[in-house]
Write a structure and sequence with these properties.
The protein is built from five helices and three strands, in the order αβααββαα. By secondary structure, the chain is mainly α. The chain has two domains: 67 residues, Arc Repressor Mutant, subunit A (Orthogonal Bundle), CATH 1.10.10; 41 residues. β2 and β3 form a beta hairpin. It comes from Paenibacillus beijingensis.
Length: 120
C-alpha cells in the first residue's frame, strides 16, 4: 500500500483515500481486517495519531468498524457506499466543471454529447 504523499493535502485524508482505494479495487474485501493505525504509521512513517485520524474518518462514515480488542474491519456494503461517494465526487469535480466551461464557450448540450461519444 505504499504511495507518495501529496504535500498539498492533509496526510490523514490521503490515508483514508488509500484505504478507500483498497476497498474499491478489491484489495480489502468486506469484513476483512485492515492494518492497525500503528502499522499504517510505520508503513508511511507518520505519527500514529495522524494515521488514526484517517482511519476514524472512515469509521465515522460507516466504511470501517472496530471490534473491541481485535482491530478494525471493512464494513459490509462499504464498497457500494464508496462507489456512490466517488461517483458523486466525479460528477461535482468533472461533469459540473465541464458543463460550466461548455456554457462559457457556447457549446450546446448536443455538441457536448457528440464530443463525449467521439472519445468512446
Amino acid at each position: 500500500m505504499g504511495f507518495d504523499m501529496d504535500e498539498s493535502r492533509p496526510i490523514f485524508v490521503q490515508i483514508a483515500e488509500r484505504i478507500e482505494d483498497g476497498i474499491i479495487e478489491g484489495a480489502l474485501q468486506e469484513e476483512a481486517q485492515v492494518p492497525s493505525t500503528n502499522q499504517f504509521a510505520s508503513l508511511y512513517q507518520i505519527n500514529p495519531a495522524t494515521a488514526a485520524k484517517g482511519v476514524n474518518l472512515l469509521v465515522d462514515q460507516g466504511i470501517l468498524y472496530k471490534k473491541r480488542g481485535v482491530g478494525m474491519f471493512v464494513a459490509e456494503g462499504a464498497r457500494a457506499k464508496l462507489m456512490e461517494k466517488r461517483k458523486e465526487q466525479f460528477y461535482e469535480q468533472y461533469v459540473v466543471t465541464m458543463i460550466r466551461e461548455a456554457e462559457k464557450l457556447g457549446i450546446t448540450a448536443e455538441q457536448l454529447m457528440d464530443m463525449i461519444r467521439r472519445k468512446g
